[in-house]
Amino acid sequence: MKLRTIIALGLLAAILGACAEPSPPTGVDGPVVVIGIDGAEWSIIEPLLDAGDLPNIAGLIERGAAGRLGSLDPRRKSPVIWTTIATGLDPDDHGVGGFVINGNPHGRDSYSHYSSNMWKAPAFWDILGDRGKTVGVIGWLVTWPPWPVNGYMVSQHVQYHDRFLQSGQGRGISWPDGLDDAIAPYVTDELALTPSQLGRFARGGVDGLSVLTEHYESGLRRALAGDASTYAVARFLLSDDVPDVACVYTRGVDEVCHRFWIHAYEDTRPPIDPAKPGTAMLADQAAELSGLIDEYYRYTDEEVGKLLELLPPNATVVVCSDHGFRGPGTWGEHAPWYGEDQHALNGILIVSGPGVKRGFTIEDASVFDVAPTILAMTAAPVADDMPGKVLSEIFTEEFVTANPVATIESYGRTERTDEAPIESPVDDEVLERLRSLGYIE
Ligand SMILES: [Zn+2]
């Protein structure tokens, strides 16, 4: 055999050997950043995209895959759905059944709040943390008390005002110890919001705010302060370092939709009856607040944009909502709002990053698919006991070839299975907010 042939055969054997033992899948190169926007709805987003009003969300859609995200049917409350998104599991398997549990073991107000010790299964960030990924979780529902992760966790109590942070009562809002003090300067008190911060949401600016009764003004303040706090804390933490997996959840979009949909969308609004007292006020409110929800989406897009600026170019960004929104609610204060009946069954899903197809339309995705898809994205096995599927169609061919989906039977159930809810210093305030949104009586 000629030397040249021997060398060629040797090279061939080396190539074949390399093919027989491919390098193990590594998943996406950069960090995965999940931005959860409660109640985000395509029918509001689409006209704003057409008008060029949501440039940051538009950029993510252009560079990635987007479509409807089917929610739990029948409709469930947000904490149930966000826990499904985090665990990939059915509510019966993950243990979180709502905001509150009827029949309060603490004997107050006949309600107690679901607390994080009631999760029966690990979130994708726990699974990935166990596999050595660094994680940061900010504001996710039912994460109080925060639990140890391979990084940090700021519970959803970050949205409730700085008085809790300053009070030093009970357990902290974040993990590890010491983080409460570090994030405190970034938390906004709803009462500290200025007229000009609120005025952008009324047609007539600061003067237009005069139509806001206490019910509406406090609703707007709470939504905005909660979101401003969450986004500011997220910016503070992500500007230091972006962990391998970061999750940021905000609730304000859902809250303003519950409260202000009735002013914003004439086609779903009950008629204003001129014979009824207070009619002039209703008409004034509808005129002043008709752009409030659209403006809140513009505000949200700005906040999302500020987060995106902190991410490296190889980040994969997932934007999702737990459900959509369809209104309309009811006129008046403390009226019988419809609570989760106002939710629409399709939320949003946008995934953008180097391994994701550009301009791809996602069809037939559900909230069950988010956790398996994030696991697959990061080359972690998907559990057979997760009812959802990996949305493989959103990834480029190169990514799919390099990252075949592995499976395991189950990630099991966590040790945090104490089923008694833990009382928190903000329970009464949370309860009052849920009442004013119509979730509970
Ligand atoms: Zn809602």
What does this protein structure show overall?
This protein is α/β, with parallel strands linked by helices and 441 residues long. The chain has 17 helices and 15 strands. It has a nine-stranded mixed sheet with strand order 7-6-5-8-1-9-12-2-13, with helices on both faces. The chain is globular. The site of zinc ion has 5 residues, from α12.
Brief digest:
The protein is of the alpha/beta class and 441 residues long. The protein contains 17 helices and 15 strands. It has helices at 3-20, 42-50, 55-63, 78-87, 91-94, 124-130, 162-167, 179-183, 195-199, 205-208, 214-240, 252-264, 279-289, 292-309, 370-377, 397-402, 427-436, and strands at residues 32-37, 65-70, 100-102, 111-113, 135-138, 151-154, 174-175, 245-250, 316-320, 324-325, 343-344, 346-352, 360-366, 382-383, 407-408.
